[in-house]
Design brief:
alpha+beta; 240 residues; three-stranded antiparallel sheet; 40% helix
């Protein structure tokens, strides 16, 4: 999980509450991380990642950022109460100068909701003073590390964006099929597949009969999320 070494980043666009969540969950020196860039017109936040290490131009960075942000939005939402954020201008860090913005903007309509704050655990010493925990990668950064080690995990995560339906859930299952699932029973997997493939679902087939106890959509989402989490735990145990 190396620190990004190149001179590229992406401006973080979104509500301040959500940007602060990214900043708290994605801290250096772990990859990816969020850096605050000072600017006379107002400081802003920039995610940095080793994903951009081999890029040479702003257009390439912007293209890579699409998948990176899509994956990160799902990962962050699984570990916090945060809404969707977007990738803004490409940021080029230059030696002995102010970072340059290459504006390749994407506009999305906003939504508003009441949210809870991201909890921070603190520990006190014998004198009652708050002690800082040793630096460690956040769960969000560990998930991103696993997605980088196994592209199938990254693919499955992206299918969970927003409120996935049966089509997206089945595609996620196809990516996860040969990865550890945390003990999900064969009967539940069969129930999931049979539910997803009946009627106007993934691949409708009149030869497939409905399951006697079809899954609710929330059950399908929970099953795939459990599978993703198990696959991630397995790969991190082998390559922390």
């Amino acid at each position: 999980m190396n620190h990004a070494s190149n001179h590229w980043g992406i401006e973080l666009n979104g509500a301040n509450e959500d940007k602060n969540v990214w900043r708290m969950l994605l801290k250096p020196p772990y990859d990816p991380y969020v850096e605050e860039v000072p600017d006379e017109r107002g400081d802003y936040l920039v995610p940095r990642s080793t994903t951009f290490d081999q890029t040479t131009g702003a257009k390439d960075v912007h293209q890579l950022a699409r998948n990176l942000f899509k994956t990160l939005n799902v990962v962050v939402s699984k570990h916090s109460d945060a809404d969707h954020v977007t990738n803004g201008a490409v940021i080029e860090f230059v030696s002995n100068g102010q970072p340059r913005k290459h504006r390749i903007l994407e506009v999305e309509s906003g939504t508003y909701r009441i949210r809870g704050s991201l909890a921070q655990l603190t520990k006190n010493d014998a004198q009652g003073k708050i002690t800082e925990p040793p630096p460690a990668a956040s769960q969000a950064q560990l998930w991103m590390h696993a997605a980088k080690l196994n592209p199938e995990i990254g693919s499955a995560i992206r299918y969970l964006e927003g409120k996935p339906g049966w089509v997206e859930l089945y595609k996620a299952w196809e990516a996860l099929e040969h990865l550890p699932n945390g003990g999900i029973s064969n009967s539940e997997i069969k129930r999931f597949k049979q539910t997803a493939n009946v009627g106007e679902r993934h691949h409708p087939d009149s030869k497939i009969k409905p399951h006697s106890r079809p899954m609710e959509l929330w059950e399908g989402r929970a099953l795939i999320t459990q599978w993703v989490s198990a696959a991630i735990n397995d790969i991190l145990a082998k390559d922390p």
